[in-house]
Design a protein that fits this description.
Elements (H helix, E strand, L loop, with lengths): L4 H32 L5 H47 L13 E10 L5 H9 L6 E6 L5 E3 L24 H27 L17 E8 L4 H16 L8 E8 L3 H14 L8 E8 L3 H9 L16 E8 L11 E3 L3 E4 L14 H12 L9 E4 L5 H14 L5 H4 E3 L1 H4 L4 H18 L3 E5 L5 E8 L15
Parallel strand pairs: 4-5, 4-6, 10-11, 10-12
Antiparallel strand pairs: 1-7, 1-8, 2-3, 6-7, 8-13, 9-13, 12-13
Length: about 475
């Protein structure tokens, strides 16, 4: 059989290497012996010209085998590790709770900037700002920036207040009036339809037993004491009962809550609760707050918290109330206004109001995660509704976010900063961002974002989308 050229090369390579080793050693030893003027004997020839090259060749062969064996062991180990890793890392299914959505069926507001979500939208788009109050003054007698709701009559409730609330400040009484006013409006519009949807309504009057129809949860400022909140709860329950909305049909509870993201966190808790195994009543979430009186102005002035030319990071006293009807079938059979997705929150590495601060990407990262979780494109949001107020740091941060997240959009048209026209209103203002975003979802049939950065470091983001088409199958429970 004739050898191929490749086979001949494979035989010649080791032979050439052997000849090279012998040639190098022989030449080296001969040159050395001549330089030393030495005549080699038989031992020198056997040792240096035969044994030495053979020993080197044998050592090379052994070294090559050791290297090849080591490589093979490493390859086997690597393959085993890859196989183990593939077996040890199964595909983890996505947490289905991250896709839960909270249906919003009604949204009502009452603020200085307007008494409907549409009015708040118009005020924000018109760049309406808080102005100097006509009567409130600081310690130097100068007017302060403050915005209040017109025609709030606290004298009308003085006779109905219990003894424990008679000495309350004007701002606390205004928070009560605002809550009663908006709660009455919502119950007038929706309670009868909710009660009619109760199966017990079809029973004969003598056999029908009153059943819970709606739970009203009233969010009051966290700085109120538990005793004061309990007093307010008893007062509101009595006022509503006098109008025909009494227990057990209407269940009134009260909770203390801080500003900003705490209200969104409560909505996220309700989202998870409505998807639980235990059926829950339709929920009316109500939040009210007020800082419009001389005592609040004096307290804020003493603490250097009032907004002004010398304090651009100060707050503007305001007041307002917001109500959201959740997880209840609309009385006329209409689909819900919008759906609120799960909340995302994170802390800035550096407080936004710290001197020498830099604009952080915390908001931008949260927006990206929220859109990805909601399966929306990066440029999908048609509007951003925020609790941005007149503090310079908050305005700069909000504009920076719009420029980074939606560079092709006009920031003035895209961003709706509700706090600029309505001042500091606590959780009520944060809930109002949800009400406005829900209204915009109805008007535009496009998704939007809710942004909260009332706190210096905590940032919160949530997506609001139009309701799913009526023909699609929804996983959201209907609890009316």
């Amino acid at each position: 059989m004739t050898e191929t050229p490749m086979e001949r090369r494979s035989l010649l390579r080791p032979l050439a290497f052997v000849v090279l080793v012998f040639g190098v050693i022989w030449c080296t030893m001969i040159v050395r012996w001549r330089m030393a003027n030495r005549v080699p004997n038989g031992t020198d020839v056997a040792l240096y010209l035969v044994a030495l090259p053979l020993g080197l060749l044998l050592g090379f062969v052994l070294l090559r085998k050791v290297i090849d064996a080591t490589k093979k062991r490493r390859q086997k180990a690597t393959q085993a590790d890859v196989a183990d890793a593939d077996a040890a890392e199964p595909v983890t299914p996505e947490d289905p709770s991250l896709a839960w959505q909270l249906p919003i069926f009604a949204a009502n507001v009452l603020f200085a900037g307007g008494d409907t979500p549409a009015a708040l939208i118009d005020a924000a788009r018109a760049s309406q700002r808080a102005e100097l109050h006509p009567t409130l003054r600081d310690g130097q007698g100068l007017p302060v920036f403050a915005v209040g709701v017109d025609d709030v009559d606290t004298a009308a409730i003085d006779d109905s207040l219990p003894d424990a609330a008679q000495g309350w400040s004007e701002s606390r009484k205004r928070a009560l009036v605002l809550a009663q006013t908006l709660a009455t409006r919502v119950l007038d519009e929706h309670f009868d339809a909710l009660r009619a949807a109760d199966p017990s309504a079809d029973m004969p009057l003598g056999r029908a037993k009153p059943r819970p129809v709606l739970q009203l949860e009233w969010l009051l400022p966290a700085h109120w004491s538990d005793a004061d909140r309990d007093t307010a709860q008893a007062w509101l329950a009595a006022q509503l009962a006098a109008q025909g909305w009494s227990a057990p049909s209407l269940q009134v509870t009260v909770s203390g809550i801080g500003s900003g993201a705490a209200a969104l966190k409560r909505l996220d808790d309700l989202n998870r609760a409505f998807h639980g195994d235990t059926p829950r009543l339709p929920h009316l979430l109500l939040a009210s707050d007020s800082h419009i009186d001389e005592a609040s102005i004096a307290e804020w002035d003493a603490a250097h918290r009032l907004h002004g030319a010398s304090r651009p990071e100060g707050l503007v006293p305001g007041e307002g109330v917001c109500a959201l009807l959740l997880a209840a079938k609309h009385p006329t059979g209409e689909v819900e206004l919008a759906r609120l997705h799960r909340l995302l929150a994170a802390q800035r590495a550096q407080p936004v109001d710290k001197p020498g601060r830099l604009q952080a990407d915390t908001f931008n990262e949260l927006v990206g995660q929220a859109l990805e979780r909601a399966k929306l494109e990066a440029d999908a949001p048609a509007h951003l509704v925020s609790d941005t107020d007149m503090r310079a740091s908050r305005s700069a941060e909000a504009m920076h976010l719009v420029e980074q997240a939606l560079p092709e959009r006009d920031p003035i048209e895209t961003l709706l900063p509700l706090g600029i026209a309505n001042g500091e209103c606590g959780a009520a203002l944060t809930l109002a961002t949800v009400a406005v975003a829900a209204q915009l979802a109805v008007d535009t049939q496009q998704p939007g974002l809710i942004l909260s950065h009332h706190d210096a470091s905590l940032r919160a983001v949530a997506v609001v989308t139009p309701p799913a088409p009526a023909t699609s199958t929804s996983t959201t429970p209907t609890l009316a």
